[in-house]
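ok trying this again, last paste got cut off
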Amino acid sequence: MASEIECPVCGIKGIDSDRENCPQCDSELTCFKVLDNLPSESPAAGRHLKWTAVGTIVCLALFFVTATVFLYLFYSLEDRMEGQEAEFKQAVSELNTEWSRWNRRIQNEIESLAVLPEPEPYDTAGDSVPDVSSAGAVGSSEPSAAPVKTPKPKQRLEFTVYTADDDDTLWELSEHFYGSGLYYPVLLEHNPRISIFDLKEGVRIKVLEDPSKARSIYKNIVIRKGASHFWEYTVEPGDTAGSIASRFYDDKKMAGRIFDFNPGVELSPGQKIQILLQ
């Protein structure tokens, strides 16, 4: 016996399943019968699709969150780099301004030294006056000799002693005691064993009591060759090119400078060599 079906369009019941059209509304029933015969979706498949959709949504959410965080960090870093670049440019500008100021000051000092009169001789040991001959004294029968011009006695230099701190530099000490950092070779002249770049704490340094003499002494001890200035150092026992370079050029690898500025030098004790002032 054929089964009966219901028309899904008009709702009439009891229609023979073999009929292809509804007797009341004439609707095509074949497609509905095909749909009814399709297997229904299992619960497991539905759960699988559900979790797949959830996983997809979570992944998309994570992707958008990660992308948002990345973009935030990228733009924050970009802003920070722009700020640091501006600070760096400002620092360079200030450094250039300060360097120009110091350069002008040094040039003014050098130009002022160029017009100084010849310095008077100084003697750290004390005054020395040569003997004058008594020839030609009054009442002598010998012919009168030409008058002898007595040279001025060398002026005695007086010193005080300063004990260096850990953060002192020769330039700063010269500026403090002599009024200009340019006169630091005067400190070297009176303290030849100290180092320009490594002035250790506790080192005792001889300083002129009369700072006005530093200027003329500077002119007397500094040798000018074009735009370069040199100071003469007297080699002491135990000195090597490396040790001298370390003290005056801050690097023993600069020993080649010793021989460049003093061709043929043997570094014998007592020998004078020229040190480039920087």
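PB: full thing came through this time. The first helix runs from residue 30 to 37.
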